[in-house]
Amino acid sequence: MRISKWLVPSLYILFLMLPIYWLVSMSFKTTNEILRGFSLFPQEFTLENYAKIFSDPTWYWGYLNSLAYVSMNTVLSVAVALPAAYAFSRYRFLGDKHLFFWLLTNRMAPAAVFALPFLQLYSSIGLFDTYLAVALAHTLFNVPLAVWILEGFMSGVPKELDETAYVDGHSFPSFFFKIFLPTIAAGIGVANFFCFMFSWVELLLAKTLTSVAAKPIAAVMTRTSSTSGYELGLLAAAGSLTIIPGAIVIWFVRNYIAKGFALGRV
Amino acid sequence: MNKTVNQKAWFLVLPVIILVAFNAIIPLMTVVNYSLQETFGDNTFFWSGVRWYEDILHSPRFWASLGRQLFFTFTILFIEVPLGVAIALTMPKKGPWVSVCLVLMSLPLLIPWNVVGAMWNIFALPDIGLLGNWLNAVGFDFNFTRQTGDAWFTLITMDVWHWTSLVVLLAYAGLVSIPDAYYQAALIDGASKWKIFRFIQLPKMKRVLTIAILLRFMDSFNIYTEPKVLTGGGPGNATTLLSIDLDKIALGQFDLGPAGAMSLIYFLIILLTSWIFYTLMMRNEEQ
Fold first, then answer.
1. Count of pairs with CB atoms under 8 A, one residue in A, one in B
2. ipTM score of the complex?
3. How far is A195 from chain B (nearest CA, A)?
């Protein structure tokens, strides 16, 4: 009984881990070994691929650039989404339902549709190749998502909390920052997590809006595969490293994952 | 919750509106402009009316891409949703290992999309990839860069690998919110496993599953980076989904007019379908 209970989840996790294992194992192989043929485990174990990444500024700056715009985007998205989500969860106002759907439609916009106009827009206001450009562009799909998640969590907080606070003499800002935000701390954590996630994994816009100074790690990877031959080991090492920030962030929100993925609507 | 009417709430949503409008409306208008004009690449534009729309709607190429897109989206929905629900149902509700399980399952969701594509490319290479090598070793003639069927198999397996966890997590969230008393009542009534699923678990999961289907529909219809890196739309045009086709027209051939018209048709399809899902979902929430 105990074994059968875990059988299906274990098999599923095994299926999830196989490609990841292959990527990581590839990153410890030398180019020679990779080209020579198939081997289940690295035969000539090497850290050379990682050494190259950590010693070459174009490589490690790729990671730092990505982390920079992702953090900016996360802070920005959640900050503007908080008051909006409060409005949607507490008040009825002219056009509220249409507005909510309009926000969501931006979550649906294919990045491929917007790539070229974005390039022109951000070039014309002089933000091309800056962190801010990517951070702002990613708000297109992250702000609607953050509003949606936070609205779910806020609707779970009874309205009596607001009313009691006003009776106790709190002003709106004092209530909002001192009482309300701590109450929905879990929701804010989850919203941060989702904004981080979608900004970290999106590359089309990030690549389009940058050239040198703010180039994301993904763009560095594509350049490597096209110019310096097909260095699979190096590519695999770079790919393996991109998994780490996500894994760390997941670990922080592990207790809220289930509820968070339901966007607070259970 | 009964909400109070308060028009001042507009001030609270204003920052969001400004930010999203800047990012959504200006680029969208640019696309609309392109779609109604003709250019010869020297920055002069001529009015061309709805010609590009007619062209796109009459082009077999567009319908072929749309067909492939629909096939892709519905195939992955039909695999990922039942599979995700089935896995969530077998997950234990409590215990220290549940967190570990959830963390491991979420891992694919946080890998950058081009890395997902590259990873599956390396994984499925017929000679030195684990999957490709094994498939060939057990007697399949597997080569995803040459054979259409193999390319589709790899593409769909990749998406199942990438996104089933989202359905699992959502369904799981719905399941753990069911109070134990419901199950005890079902036990007393002598309800079968199927009856418990049909009348207790499924209704509780309805809401989160609608979110799951909505998200999976939108995202799979927009999918670009992963197939681009994995197969590049090939072999030939076999796995050229809508966004890859669009990219070929817009950035490959720089035909801004047709690309603009196609973008808008593409966007409208997603919008319309999502609106239907959304209306259904909101009706559920109000009940």
1. 277
2. 0.85
3. 11
